[in-house]
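re the bet — no i am not wrong, look at it urself. input seq straight from the record:
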Amino acid sequence: MNIYEALVKEWDYLAPHDQKAITISNTARSQFDFKVLPRRYGNDTAVVCFLINNSDYLKETIEFFDGKVDKIYVDVEQKQDIDLYNESRKLIRHSKLITVKPNDIAIESCDLLLRKMFDDNLSQKNMAIIGTGNLASKIALRMAERQARVFIEGRSKEKEKMIINGINSFLPAYTSPINTMNQWDQAKPFDAVISFLSGPYWAESKLLPSIKNKTLIVDGGISNFSSEFIQSMLKQDVNITRLDVRFALPYQFMDTMQDTTTFYEDIYGIKNIGDHSIVAGGYIGHEGSIIVDQIKRPTQIIGIADGMGGVKSNNDLSGKDHKAIEFIQDTIKAGCQIAE
């Protein structure tokens, strides 16, 4: 099947849906110039996904779908020589271009998977993290923050030490520090083994004594484990799972979801009412600005801005401040009752 035929086939899937989108991404170790990835559906939107590492294929794909789909999600992380975002920005004329960070989606997917599998209780769970790259380091931090006991193994012991020391330097004070796999007692079972490598794992046999049938193994790098290792796990009824990022698809849609658009349209901003300024949603106002709960239709006065990002204490309020509060309260009451 040539690329045009593949594009037509994916369009045949999208066409019946009211909301349609495509995702274009690549990976650091991809061996493909063009590949169709698994389809996704979420937020009432059908999505087809492509891995592209070739400018000509990118141009053909965008020209085929531009205007036919509502949104084109483009990987903004430059993991190959091709700059997908900037090349796509020059090509897209009709559909809405939205940047996406697949690495973040992978982390959200892995985090959600682990929470689901352990009934949202990762405290004191023993976890092996294989890898010291972007994804492995991020999930190690996430698991440590969730109070898991984390042990990292990398190809380079120098980088392994650097990553562990770096994460431990900013973990909360009462969080268990991350350790190296060499500090693990192999007689004890791991609750989870998470691999985020860019190639095969080199020390599968070392893991075997610490894997029991309740151990969860997550192949986040895809094909990190050998077929022999996988067969061995299956024979022991060990749950070995390849990470499917569709689990966190809503994360990709956050930019256009109703809660996000509502926040920036109705809550965040600055507005003048008579001679007074109101601010909301974290917008830092000048001293004397009145902080309210939402900018479009405020229901509550939070306080008076001190001009430095904070709120004046009641003892610091001037007569002018009190009059401003009274004026805004009267204005709010004219539209709706202030929430107590």
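see?? Residues 258-335 form one domain. told u. also The two ends are 64 Å apart (CA to CA). so pay up
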